Amino acid sequence: MDGNIWQQVLQIAFLLEMINTVPFVIGIFDHPLQNLFIPVFLNCWLAKRALESMVNDFHRAIHRTQSAMFNQLLILISTIICLIFTFICGVEHLQRAGKKLSVFDSFYFCIVTFSTVGFGDVLPDIWPSKLLVVIMICVALIVLPIQFEELAYLWMERQKSGGDYSKQRTETERHVVLCVSSVKIDLLMDFLNEFYAHPRLQEYYVIILCPAEQDAAVRRVLRIPMWSHRVIYLQGSALKDQDLVRAKLDNAEACFILTCRCEEDRNAADYQTILRAWAVKDFAPSCTLFVQILKAENKFHVKFADHIVCEEEFKYAMLALNCICPATSTFITLLVHTSQGLYGICLIGVCPDDTKKNILLNPGPEHIMKPLDVCFYISLTKEENSCFKRGCKNSPKTQPPTSSAITSMGTVAIDLQELSIPSSLGPSLSAETNISETRKPNMVPVLELPDSPSFQTADMFSDQSKNPYQPYTGDEGSNDYVKGYPPDLPYIGSSPILCHLRKKKTPKCCMQLEKTCNHKDEEDVKAYSLKNKLIIVSAETTRNGLYNFILPLRASYRSENELCPIVLLLEHDLDDLLRCGVSFAASMVVVDKESTMSAEEDYMADAKTIINVQTLFRLLSGLNIITELTHPANMRFMQFSAKDCHSLAFSKLEKKEREKGSNLSFIFRLPFAAGRVFSIGMLDTLLYQCFVKDYMITITRLLLGLESTPKSGFLCSMSITEEELCIETYGRLYEMLSSTVGDIPIGIYRTESQMLEPPEVSLRSFHPQQHIYTIILKHHKYLHRHFYIQTHSLRRRSMQWASNLLGPWHAERDADRLSQQRGVLLSCSERLELTELVKKRMKNLGLSTHGFDRMNNNQSSHSYALINPSPDTKLELNDIVYIIRKDPLIKDERY
């Protein structure tokens, strides 16, 4: 009890009350003491203390817990005011014994003293005033730095946590919330570039909610003026309602929840995403939710989300289609990224008004367009929409307009257009009728083809032997398969797709190549007597996601001639690769291993995969190897050759684009252009674009065969042979296919021979409105034209003659060219040595080497994809055309 009394007595506030109160009480009883001076101005410190208590009680009453910064700022301001007020009043009173100063002079002296200016025009002339000045300066030097330090500490903590997004801003602004466990610079830039690519979203704000502190790279990016006023970083967890309140999630337009794919345990990463999705849905049920999930078996936990992208499903389906439709991964990646181009539109699907949700890819020419139907087309610029406007103006005013939402895939152009369909046209109205009305002048009519079996439409698509990716095995009407749904689904939520099933179940013992059983004697793939070429999948372990790899390859709409055997390779020895039949395999898919997806150093997670694939590429140069990588930036190491002049030339162009801030610089790499490398991170934009284009995920799933809709088409390919070269241009091929069999071409996969000299990549000729691969196409055409003009002998003589005229500069270039030729010869000899080494090993293992020389005797070539090329694009031999083919169950009733 005594301690409490002394604690109250020794408080500064109690002493101030005694100094300001006791003299008044004594002056009441003793009249002479009424003239005693009492420092009443010291009561300002008591008022400061009362103000702090009142503010704390007010915050406690309104349940405001985030007021530390406000309280500290209030304390600092009140302390400065009290110090200045005490100094002014004290100097003015003490100077009454000397040279009197007014209150204004005292205020002027206080400001000059605390600002360390000291003009000297106003000075205290007695020692009590001078002592007060010394005391006040010492107090200010002790008290104010402490207050400023506490305020700076709170400010730094506030900067780390990101502060709050004020409720007043939500009334006039729109924002979206991005929830991630950790922010990487690549993920952040990809999101920002794709989200702000659409002009309608320029005024939106992005609130990043992340439990980790932002690193230096992210901090530098967020300080760029382009992003500093539109992106707000909040450190917090989506599982805490306080942090969701700070982000004003209940007022947000949408919430994106992304999963960290660099975690060693991908299931654990999915579990965190699931909890975040549940917390967001519980806090803001009306907020549009976009969720990214890694494992397919965890997808059903977030079925309530508005848009879901399952990485495992898209990855395996895309890798599978790469085996039968080359460079599908490249085609889809470029399709879902925002780009600009030169050419027209390509109608690919319709969403009928009566179904609302079911999108039909190429429903066929017998589909009748109705009012309020939604059409989907590929457009590289929004200027092509003007062709629909012209069609509307030419139609009679009495015709009812069709309000159709014409939206473009993979572009920034989303416009609402009006299509007028004449009511006088009956059920015979087809897609060809609408196209002919707005046909471009450079699309000439298709010439009448000769009546020969080689030009019959049915023969063109039934002869699958023309396509090396679709081998021919004999009679199509085989009795080994039956169409049906898979009897056992690998995980909850998997989509049942009609596919080819074997009538007789293969014994489990026969499914293991490395073991013999009673049904086969050899430990080799030859024991199965397979007719089609193999598709080898190299994976770390068996997982449920492989179901999505098998599904597109066994879809019911593919003929039995296209069903290639699938070999799952789980071993790490090269001998196992030889035993599984790599010598006559069509493709080999190397899936990124989960155990190596995380590394201490960024981009080192792909080191093991890259080295293993490079070894296979050196030993089996003719094998079509399709690789999945974690980081898109590591694509430059695929099929790496330090002396490849073409790779070096395109590397310079990639560096130039990276300096401009492009997030698509990897598209200049030749392995990506050829569809031999893929990173699932490139499809993150699929989720981002769904904020504006909510149909993107559905259309992509239909293209990949992950979903099936009645009367909807599917993605396939056809090869251009010498018989089809008379069609000449892509536009005429489009008209012929759409008018005869109802197929819709959407792109070309082209392979060209690699010449010795590198392409002259001119950065000045690069136009932002031009499609990327048009540049590559022009460079390759330059190579062919230059190669056919001069023969090798004439070139050698002319270069020797020119070197004598041009001097040492041209001689140096000639020496470089000779060194390149010498490098090519050395690489050929090295390839022969490695081929002999592999053949000897196969003989030692008792394996047949038949066809191995033919597989490795491939000429070096470059491949690339053209999305919706110009109608004037010339067709070349061995071009593979991407086609959306209508459902084979639909009967064409036009003929």
UniProtKB/TrEMBL annotation:
The keyword Transmembrane helix applies. The keyword Transmembrane helix applies. InterPro entries: K_chnl_BK_asu, K_chnl_dom, K_chnl_Slo-like, RCK_N. The chain crosses the membrane at residues 12-29, 72-94, 106-124, 131-148. Pfam families: BK_channel_a, Ion_trans_2, Slo-like_RCK. One of its GO terms (molecular function) is intracellular sodium-activated potassium channel activity. Keywords: Ion channel, Ion transport, Membrane, Potassium, Potassium channel, Potassium transport, Transmembrane, Transmembrane helix, Transport. It is found in: Membrane. It is a multi-pass membrane protein. Its main location: membrane. Residues 173-309 form the RCK N-terminal domain. One of its GO terms (cellular component) is plasma membrane. It catalyses: K(+)(in) = K(+)(out). PANTHER family: CALCIUM-ACTIVATED POTASSIUM CHANNEL ALPHA CHAIN, POTASSIUM CHANNEL SUBFAMILY T MEMBER 2. This is Potassium channel, subfamily T, member 2. It comes from Cyprinus carpio (Common carp).
